[in-house]
Task: inverse folding
């Protein structure tokens, strides 16, 4: 039995992210992982070269960004275009599906940013009641 059939049998849906063998779970991990979400959000603003993207996504290593871009490209969310120049120029941009996913992620990102004062207050209360930090 293939993975898609296993997902379909779990529910009446062709894919089910809650089924451990379903391929949708891997894509969800690529999209919602720290570097995937930030990379998609950065590319939502437009096409970027690798080093531009690395500067935009502060803190990501070259290796992690490369792995993230490969995973997002494989999932059809990012398009990589290599220009035959010397030195080679490689640009990354979102596909139409990538734009849709990035838009949804940016809504969540903006929500989190807009509510950080509440989150920080909650963290302080939590830490004070437990004697931590």
Result:
């Amino acid at each position: 039995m293939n993975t898609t059939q296993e997902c379909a049998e779990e529910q009446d849906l062709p894919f089910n992210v809650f089924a451990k063998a379903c391929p949708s779970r891997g894509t969800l991990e690529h999209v919602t992982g720290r570097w995937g979400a930030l990379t998609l959000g950065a590319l939502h603003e437009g096409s970027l070269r690798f080093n531009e993207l690395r500067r935009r996504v502060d803190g990501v290593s070259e290796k992690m960004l490369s792995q993230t871009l490969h995973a997002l490209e494989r999932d059809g969310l990012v398009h990589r275009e290599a220009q035959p120049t010397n030195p080679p120029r490689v640009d990354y941009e979102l596909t139409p599906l990538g734009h849709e996913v990035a838009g949804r992620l940016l809504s969540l990102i903006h929500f989190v940013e807009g509510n950080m004062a509440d989150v920080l207050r909650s963290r302080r209360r939590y830490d004070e009641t437990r004697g931590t930090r």
The longest helix spans residues 96-114. The longest strand covers residues 78-83. The mean pLDDT is 90.
